[in-house]
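Quick one: structure for this chain?
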Amino acid sequence: MSDCILNPSRLTQEVIISKPALLFVNPGDTRSITSLARKLKAQQHPLFNSNLFEIPEYNSIFWAGPALGSPAAVIVLEKLIALGCRNIIVYGWCGSLVPQLCMQDIFLPTWSISEEGTSKHYPLEKPAASDPTIRKQLREFLQKKGYPVKEGPIWTTDAPYRETRNKIETYGQQGVMAADMEFSALCTVASFRGITLTSAMLVSDELYHEKWHSVFTHKSFHKKSRKVFACLSEFASSIIC
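Got it. Here's what it folds into:
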């Protein structure tokens, strides 16, 4: 029995989620995703300061987001789980730490180095990672759609303005390929709650250069982000719960 003061729960009037959910974390995707949801005549449900759409076009899966940073992302994830969801696909952006991972590449994180403060509140016997079976299915699905993907560990941090040169070089030398703000916490909570979770990320910037390179303000990046999100929706709708 949990001794927590607050526990995630579903209220009687709230929707029941029996299909997979696609959780997008970055606010930069919100406008295009909410616009698409309206075009698809999605049913909108309440979800804190975020959005929750039920998408008939994609076998009635759910889209949720945005939820930037580990605390906000975990709050949304906990609610999705409380509503009944057992399969989560996370979509976000990430920065590259190594030359092998380039801007606008699709990256599937495997496990993470956690420098966020949320995971420690969900004790596990072993470090969390994305679900290997679903990740393999996602990799094969994306490749069949013509999207080459790269996989590897990621560094999750609460402090994007404290990503120092020394850390970037050290983690890159250790084989850590990217940086984000949510993955380690989301994987930890998924493992703690016993649900499956995997993630796909679009590389928005490169941190390993002497001068920071970014592409997330470019139209081509947002165009590809929309295409990747639609592809992930198609994948999520194919998962058998």
